[in-house]
Design goal:
Length: about 120
């Protein structure tokens, strides 16, 4: 290729500075219609409403989880108390004594039949 061929190739390329206005990308400043402004306001209001609803759902979810945790903590405390009662009963039984409430537990569970006095 010589210099003349290069000049012909360069001259055949479209001039980038001579682009049509319709070919530009992106928003065109100064061309907003009044209905576009209304659409933007409606979009912003929908966004705000969606954010309010999201926060309300989040608050309800956290309240539910807090209640669930509180219930589980109560259950854990009740089970710990029951475990401690059984430990005390075990130590008393190993010493040869019948602990208070142990007989009633056996009767309720059906291990020992209640005697009927006539």
């Amino acid at each position: 290729m010589d210099c003349e061929d290069m000049q012909m190739i360069i001259s055949e390329e479209p001039n980038l500075s001579e682009r049509k206005e319709g070919g530009k990308r992106g928003r065109k400043p100064g061309r907003k219609a009044s209905n576009e402004k209304i659409d933007i306001r409606a979009k912003l209001e929908r966004s705000r409403q969606s954010a309010r609803e999201c926060r309300a759902r989040k608050k309800l979810r956290y309240q539910y989880l807090e209640e669930l945790v509180a219930d589980r903590e109560k259950a854990v405390l009740a089970l710990r108390a029951e475990l401690e009662r059984y430990r005390l009963w075990s130590s008393e039984l190993s010493e040869g004594r019948i602990p208070n409430g142990f007989q009633q537990l056996l009767e309720e569970s059906g291990f020992v039949k209640q005697e009927i006095v006539v």
